[in-house]
Amino acid sequence: MIGVGLIGGSLARALRAAGAVDEVVGCGRGRPNLEQAVELGVIDRFSHDIAEAVQDADVVFLSVPLGAMAGAFAALRDHLPAHALITDGGSAKGSVVHDCREQAPELLARYIPGHPIAGTEHNGVSASFAELYQDRRVILTPLSENAPESVALVRQMWEACGAEVTEMSVEHHDEVLAATSHLPHMLAFGLVDMLARLKENDEIFRYAAGGFRDFTRIASSNPVMWRDICIANREALGPMLNAFAGEMNLLAERIHRGDGEALLEIFERAKAARDRFTDGMK
Amino acid sequence: MIGVGLIGGSLARALRAAGAVDEVVGCGRGRPNLEQAVELGVIDRFSHDIAEAVQDADVVFLSVPLGAMAGAFAALRDHLPAHALITDGGSAKGSVVHDCREQAPELLARYIPGHPIAGTEHNGVSASFAELYQDRRVILTPLSENAPESVALVRQMWEACGAEVTEMSVEHHDEVLAATSHLPHMLAFGLVDMLARLKENDEIFRYAAGGFRDFTRIASSNPVMWRDICIANREALGPMLNAFAGEMNLLAERIHRGDGEALLEIFERAKAARDRFTDGMK
Lengths: 282, 282
Prior knowledge:
2 copies of one chain form a homodimer.
Chain A: H1 6-17, E1 25-27, H2 31-39, E2 45-47, H3 50-53, E3 59-62, H4 69-76, E4 85-88, H5 94-103, E5 111-112, E6 114-116, E7 137-140, H6 148-160, E8 164-167, H7 170-197, H8 201-206, H9 210-216, H10 223-232, H11 234-257, H12 260-281
Helix pairs in contact in A: 4-5, 7-11, 10-11
């Protein structure tokens, strides 16, 4: 487990609960977090050195920030045991594949990119729990270099955690995630930031109600992680943000014109889609 | 109670619970809803005719859609008892004041505009409950024509329901609400609509997680009500939407440039403001 936080810690707990692992070795920078991970029984032991941590590994799971993936691949390059596989939990896939190709091209065949669609607003190993992936989706974006049995092993790992695994291309993953996760986060961060910069911002927040709280919850997410995601997925996210801005300008124009019919059509279509989505989650 | 739904029904229930009313008369178009309101003990009796409904009224509460306010003032014009006051629950105030001024200028002195910042995603009298306004804010936007004792009575009415009453100008109310409520609704409706129009929309929604659900909850709101709010508050909302679109284009540019420092600054400022806001709500 390179990175023992919510994502890696929960994976370790779930695999233990399923009886699917013998030993879990943690690797990270912060000693207190790693010590806590041992105390909590999430990992058996730890090292601050990637090469040392992976020396007996069958599977290496990378859950470091996207900005730290390149360094992790560089550290793995000459130290990954010959039979071991690598997979990860990064929220963008193109950039991680790129990092592997740049830093450790010989590992590409043994790197099976993955992304569990799960999380909470809490961070760190203390927030991890074995049920995080139960009935959640995990997307794998296998590379042409991957052997089918390697992909199957990673799939099996996630299924042991109760997840529903699907496969798609790297590019498609990054577009889908830009739409459903990265763009909404930008809107929430952008809205709260715009309001916070208004001079009467204290008063404005005072009159915000429950809808605003729900809407902006994701603006409490980790800023460093989101900086990394934005940059990692900039190809998909940038154009989507511009498209959304265009939609908002069009909406403003319709509001300005008082075009009730067009507004109603948008709101009804959105409500219908949202209600279908909620029904689908039940 | 002109309009006996969540807002009007909850007000009636709260006033009854506080022992602050003798008789509550409902007025509306749908007979089944009004009959249910009588059965639930929310109102004592009802009429479909505004003139008839208000003939013994001390206070008239308008909670009809913003698009129906003008008609309500026109109907009240020659039938409001001489001592009676009018107040309302409309989400925009400038348009309702405008409607009163146009349709019944002689009632302006007796119309005290108000807006309870409360609601749920449910509609109709069956969703009403006496505690809806407990510890919630109610904004009054008194007019220069209003007598202080009229404003005091409306304030007292809301305080009897457990609400915290504040006063501000009509224009300021409409700006604050555009920022904290109307703009977020536009973003949620706009996002869901944009995604729903993508050809692979079923798949996109399939990979949306909990954050998306929270973020888009308000896109399930009543489309007709929101069409009315947009048009009623177009002066404040339109420019704010354009400003937000500008922010998103700027953000896209920063993402495109990979300007991690600028991104981190935005996300940190937003997170700090959001966390302050949440602390303030505890």
